[in-house]
Amino acid sequence: MTDTTSGSRAGRNGAAKGKAEAKAKAGAGLTVERIFTTPGVHPYDEVTWARRDVVMTNWRDGSINFEQRGVEFPDFWSVNAVNIVTSKYFRGAVGTPQREWSLKQIIDRVVKTYRAAGEKNGYFGTAADAEIFEHELTYALLHQVFSFNSPVWFNVGTTQPQQVSACFILAVDDSMESILDWYKEEGMIFKGGSGAGLNLSRIRSSKELLSSGGNASGPVSFMRGADASAGTIKSGGATRRAAKMVVLDVDHPDVEAFIETKVKEEEKIRALRDAGFDMDLGGDDITSVQYQNANNSVRVSDEFMQAVEKGEQFGLRARMTGEVIETIDAKGLFRKMAEAAWACADPGIQYDSTINHWHTSPESGRINASNPCSEYMHLDNSSCNLASLNLMKFLRDDDSFDAETFAKVVELVITAMDISICFADFPTEKIGETTRAFRQLGIGYANLGALLMATGHAYDSEGGRAFAGAITSLMTGTAYKRSAELAGVVGPFDGYARNAEPHQRVMRQHAEANDAARRMDDLDTPVWAAATEAWQDVVRLGAKNGFRNAQASVLAPTGTIGLMMDCDTTGVEPDLALVKFKKLVGGGSMQIVNGTVPRALKRLGYQDEQVEAVVAYIGEHGNVVDAPGLRPEHYEVFDCAMGERSISPMGHVRMMSAIQPWISGAISKTVNMPESASIEEVEEIYFEAWKLGVKALAIYRDNCKVGQPLSAKTKSSDEAKAVAPVFAAPAAVTEKVVEYRPVRKRLPKGRPGITTSFTVGGAEGYMTANSYPDDGLGEVFLKMSKQGSTLAGMMDAFSIAVSVGLQYGVPLETYVSKFTNMRFEPAGLTDDPDVRMAQSIVDYIFRRLALDFLPFETRSALGIHSVEERQRHLETGSYEPADEEDVDVEGLAQSAPRAAAAPAPVVIQTATAAPAAPHNTAELLEIQQGINSDAPLCFSCGTKMRRAGSCYLCEGCGSTSGCS
Questions:
Q1: What is the per-residue pLDDT for 773?
Q2: Dist CA 148 CA 107 (whole Å)
Q3: Is 63 helix (H, G, I), strand (E, B) or coil?
Q4: Residue 311 has what pLDDT?
């Protein structure tokens, strides 16, 4: 048993030892190629830097959670990415001179540490190679091409221990000393901001005897103490809460009790809630419930699954002797697992035989467990540091995938990741020894869902799976190729000699799977070709040099770092929804249609006018069903994880199976199921995943958890209304309630205005749009050329109605979204170069008003662009103006609620809760779909979190419930 000081000391001693070994084994050193940078030009000098103010609030009470002004970032970084990095990764006390304030500082802090360690340990051939490495790594981080996992940003280059790993696997034996060590080691890992997993199957069951003659407590009883510890520790201060995984083998005699732990606790929550206790997520009384701080998984073998398939009996074995002490019906136990998962999402399932079939180091021990999110699987008492690539950065303008650049970036990143082990500290000496001996790495990617949509692939399609498989195969093949090259420079990992034969066997398995994979189209075929070449090099170089790393790749949830890279989708997940919630520079937020939708439509052959119409429809309806001009066979391209057309559960499983053969570890993913899903469907998913070669998965059935996301126990009636569920049923109240009605804000006598003449389909007219002096559009007058006609009269009435609405505070964008694309005669060509075709006079009028009065981002989300913007898009691929800062927020003033004189109160007898404003994409989707999901609220800022793999992610502040 060691403390963190000894673990850190062990890390430094290990680094010194690694240096000596590297010098002894060193070859010529690596020659580093340039990918993005230009000789003589630093990456920082190629971007425009801007100062931002970061102020983050808790939406529930308006309190400021974090504030730092004047931070420096590239101008193309989004508000969300700036907020995440500033609040999570800048080091030093806020308000002190030691506090970091620029992205340059944290990139330099990390990259220069990596370069120095690489030079010290013999990785580079020359000083020039080291400088190229530094500049390329800087460029890739600066331009959001990839990101290291969070512990790197927390710790590297600081005075605290240089912990770089996010994922840990512990071990516990059948002794009280080992169990108490487990509690302590797990707690120290949580404190450092990471997560851990372990297998409890070595602990004797409650059906076995102690040496003293009494019955053993069993692993389930010891889980209570660990769960209470995890619930007490908030990792990394308030960075994230403790994340843990508990695994039990299917042949353990206590496996049924393990399966039922959370089901019974859910029943307890219901009973206590009905008795009046606050059992909501984050409620005062929820802490009395046990087993809520861990993900549980049952480790099943091929023997068990075959017994399920055949309807046979299965033996549960004593831990100390291995003899069968109880025989059960395998199918009945499998059914209990499915019932529990259906009821409360736990336990997940891990396929032990499949996992160990792909194990590169079996001579040094089995793979018994995983990290909390199930992507890292390797030896006990080991760790893995992660990095993820942003796949959208490798999509060319012609929609082909840049496999050559992708492979070069993989080589760069895997080199940096391996260097980090030379200087890294670890929470325990045992973990440090195992990690330095086997050097497990976890390169992965994010934005797969966005990439597939942008290239016109449905997530649940043969083409989409082939493209994803090709990219994954190329990534892992290139990573192992570089690992073999590193072995030739600084030597293979210490455990390689003992495991050379099985390691090379697994490499051949990967290569054979690559050769057998199905090629589908012109997008994936070149990537498969590059992957084939990489795996050939892996087999050849591995036989010659060995390998530097026992593991190379995993697919992590990419929660916080996904936000840092401005990714639309996390890890291997599809898009959550087609409509996003975007924060704006200077404050405020807006609803926009996913930027990959227009690109996908163009890839599918739609013209600009058709794209605008579909985007406008999505902005209003949130889905593509019945979108104007969109062919039904293309609907599947726009299927998302939630919404009108959600991807089927088996679609998620099929995607996992398509990429698993080229992942060293596993895939962090939860298979989402609708609330109406049956227990039989859960059984089918668990069974088919085994058949398809998936290593591990978990399911989540909507609303299977009891705890509600919003607490009904509030301090006042006002607060109750503020946090009421978005779609709470109207409740009659007996007391009088004050309702504040809107007040009309009239325009002054003298007002600025614009008069526009127009022709639509031969019908002539004039539009006069008058504005408030400082607050946007206030009235519209429409006159048709034929006075006295019915059309002219209707236009007069219509313009009065719109003007009154504007003066009562109805946002212009609401009118634009409702009236554009409305079809009736007269329609056709116009004399306006910005709006060449109009489907009606009303369609033209509101497109013209949008162009004149709405800011760029708002109307771009509605698919409305000027002729100059469309021309710019043809030339550069972007509609955005050269200086976007000038149009970001100020023009939104007309659509914000106007400050007015105190409104007159009107006393009424009943009231209903007003719909709550969304604060991120998950809440926006709830409003659109009329649902209220049971994802937890963020403990830092109070907004609704959303799933990212097996964990939860807060889009507001970047907090996660996981370990990536």
A1: 79
A2: 11
A3: coil
A4: 97
Terminal alpha carbon distance of the chain: 26
User: 126 Cβ partners below 8 Å, 6+ apart?
Assistant: 29
Count of Cβ atoms closer than 10 Å to residue 39 Cβ: 9
Cβ atoms of 953 and 946 closer than 8 Å: yes
∠ CA(846), CA(852), CA(858), 5° rounding? Answer: 75
Rounded to whole angstroms, the Cα distance separating 517 from 514 reads 5
The predicted-structure confidence for 518-531, as pLDDT tens digits, reads as follows 999 999 999 999 99
> Which residue ranges in the chain fall short of pLDDT 50?
1-26, 235-240, 707-739, 883-915
In the annotation, is 447 catalytic? no
CA-CA distances (angstroms) from residue 328 to 316, 323, 534, 616? 8, 14, 47, 58
The first and second tokens of residue 358, run together, are 């792909």
Number of neighbouring beta carbons within 10 Å of residue 451: 26
For the question of residue 404 being annotated catalytic, the response is no
> DSSP letters of 321-366?
T--EEEEEEHHHHHHHHHHHHHHHS--EEEEHHHHHHT-S-GGG--
CA distance readout (Å), 910 to 94, 393, 734, 913: 47, 54, 7, 10
pLDDT of 937? 66
Collapsing DSSP to helix, strand or coil, 779 comes out as strand
Give the closest residue to 476 by CA, choosing from 376, 390, 554, 562: 554
C-beta atoms surrounding 98 within 10 Å:
8
Q: How far is residue 797's CA from residue 811's CA, in Å, rounded to a whole number? A: 19
Q: What is the pTM of this model?
A: 0.76
Q: In the 8-state DSSP scheme, what is residue 709? A: S
Q: How far apart are CA 143 and CA 141, in angstroms?
A: 5
Q: Which residues contact 135 (CB under 8 A, 6 or more apart)?
A: 34, 37, 42, 43
pLDDT at 930: 55
The Cα–Cα gap between 932 and 642 comes to 12
HSE of 768, CA atoms in CB hemisphere, 13 A? 9
How far apart, in whole angstroms, are the C-alpha atoms of residue 627 and residue 577?
16
Task: Please name the residues in contact with 276: beta carbons below 8 A apart, sequence gap of 6 or more.
Answer: none
Rounded distance between C-alpha atoms, residue 334 and residue 310, angstroms: 12
User: 411 with 482: CB under 8 angstroms?
Assistant: yes
* Helix 524-545 / helix 462-490 crossing angle, nearest 10 deg: 30
For residues 884 and 880, what is the distance between their CA atoms, to the nearest angstrom?
A: 7
Q: Which of the residues 149, 293, 371, 390 is marked catalytic?
A: 371
Q: Where in the chain is the domain with CATH 3.20.70.20?
A: 171-363
Q: How many CA atoms lie within 13 A of 337 on its CB side?
A: 31
Question: Which of these is catalytic: 136, 149, 344, 373?
Answer: 373
Report the amino acid identity of residue 799: S
Peptide bond into 826 cis (omega under 30): yes
Nearest residue to 433 via CA among 356, 502, 365, 506:
365
Q: At the top level of CATH, which class does the domain 171-363 belong to? A: alpha beta
- The active-site residue, picked from 100, 186, 375, 779, is 375
For residue 49, what are its two tokens? Answer: 């830097």
How many angstroms separate the CA atoms of 541 and 523, rounded? 28
Report the alpha-carbon distance of residue 166 to residue 171 in Å, rounded.
17
Backbone dihedral angles phi then psi of residue 926, each to the nearest 5 degrees: -60, -45
Give the whole-angstrom CA distance, residue 150 versus residue 560: 7
**414 Ramachandran zone, left/alpha/beta (phi>0; psi -120 to 50):** alpha
Which pLDDT score is estimated for 927?
A: 60
DSSP state of 761: T
What sign results for the dihedral spanned by CA atoms 812, 885, 925, 609? positive
Smallest CA-to-CA distance from 811 within 623, 627, 628, 591 is with 591
Distance (Å, rounded) from C-alpha 330 to C-alpha 311?
Answer: 7
373 a catalytic residue: yes
State which H helix or E strand residue 181 sits in: helix 176-191
